[in-house]
Amino acid sequence: MGTAFAVVLVFVGCCSNVVSLELLVREFPGCGNIVTFAQFVFIALEGFIFETKFGRKKPAIPVSNYVIMVTMFFTVSVINNYALNFNIAMPLHMIFRSGSLIANMILGIIILKKRYSASKYLSIVLVSTGIFICTIMSAKQVHDVSSDGSKEQGLYAFMHWLIGIAMLTFALLMSARMGIFQETLYQQYGKHSKEALFYNHCLPLPGFLLLATNIYNHCILFNESTPVLLPVVGLTMPTMWLYLLINVVTQYVCIRGVFILTTECTSLTVTLVVTLRKFVSLIFSILYFQNPFTAWHWVGTAVVFIGTLLYTEVWSSMQAALRGAGVKEKKAE
């Protein structure tokens, strides 16, 4: 019951979160900072009340370690959102972040001296190929769109897009490094996922002072958006604030669902559910918002997710489960 409920939370929360984020970004492409700030405040407030018991509960992991983790987490969150300002389409943004498996594996080999099976290395090739295909096709689209203008404008648009790709690459590697750091902490102090969730969202809050001007400007823009009537309460509020509220709530539902999964299921199941969620979100984003997506994009997307499923060893797990079921039936006979 808990597992099924968590899966529903992940799919409903995360997919709704992607939709609300795209609605925000389509209207104001540079609104990533205010979205991130609102998410952090909401999750930090919830954790302060229910996890730390209004600050009375001491952390199981030293705060100094959380400071290091939070620095990486804050950097990844801000850069991922800010990359949308650099001609990065939402589908490419989602596909690129699906390369977290390869980033984790590469840094695991370098830092933790890990070694993997042949299927894991094959998954690296597939995921890398898929991301490469989608990246190249998106680069071609940027060039085609900008070709109507002057050469200077086309070059500027392409260089602008390359900066966004570089930001996504850096955020991907930084996120993988954070995952390795978090793994070593859990091995030393035990798993405290909800505590880490709170500190990862609470400690970075002062850092948003550096983004105060941008956040304030978008508050003004949000206030000037078209008002919408809330049917239940009978009140009106600006449309963008409604989208932001939906985004914050669905982000919490998504993260909460993933947290329940980590306590109920194996890491294999969690990775599979999150991967399938990304795929559903991607398809919905393309169909509903009519994002430009060529046949080559579909090929790249398929290769990325096949590589991801190969990494999680879904096929061998299904075969083992079927063999186990066959053995039980023979014993029953």
Topology of this protein?
Layout: H1 2-27, H2 32-50, H3 63-82, H4 90-97, H5 100-111, H6 118-146, H7 151-189, H8 193-202, H9 212-223, E1 227-229, E2 236-238, H10 239-264, H11 267-289, H12 295-311, H13 314-332
Antiparallel strand pairs: 1-2
Helix pairs in contact: 1-10, 1-11, 2-8, 2-10, 3-7, 3-8, 4-11, 5-7, 6-7, 6-12, 11-12
Description:
InterPro entries: SCL35B1-4/HUT1. It comes from Poecilia mexicana. It is a single chain. The chain is mainly α. 78% of the residues lie in helices and 2% in strands. It has 13 helices and two strands. A two-stranded antiparallel sheet has the order 1-2. Helix 2 crosses helix 8 and helix 6 packs antiparallel against helix 12. It starts with a helix and ends with a helix. 35% of the residues are buried. The model has no long low-confidence stretch (mean pLDDT 81).
What keywords describe this structure?
globular; 333 residues; transmembrane helix; UDP-xylose transmembrane transporter activity; 78% helix; SCL35B1-4/HUT1; signal; 13 helices; transmembrane
Shape annotation = globular
Report the strand count. 2
Low-pLDDT regions? none
- Give the terminus-to-terminus CA distance: 30 Å
Number of discrete helical segments: 13
Helix content: over 70%
**Rounded average pLDDT:** 81
Secondary-structure content class: mainly alpha
Trace the largest sheet across and list its strands: 1-2
SSE pattern, N- to C-terminal: HHHHHHHHHEEHHHH
Rg calculated over all Cα atoms: 21 Å
Let me know the largest β-sheet.
Answer: 2 strands, antiparallel
Classify the beta-strand content into a percent band: under 5%
Keywords: Membrane, Signal, Sugar transport, Transmembrane, Transmembrane helix, Transport
Transmembrane segments: 30-51, 63-83, 95-112, 121-138, 158-176, 197-216, 228-246, 258-289, 295-314
Signal peptide: 1-20
Main location: membrane
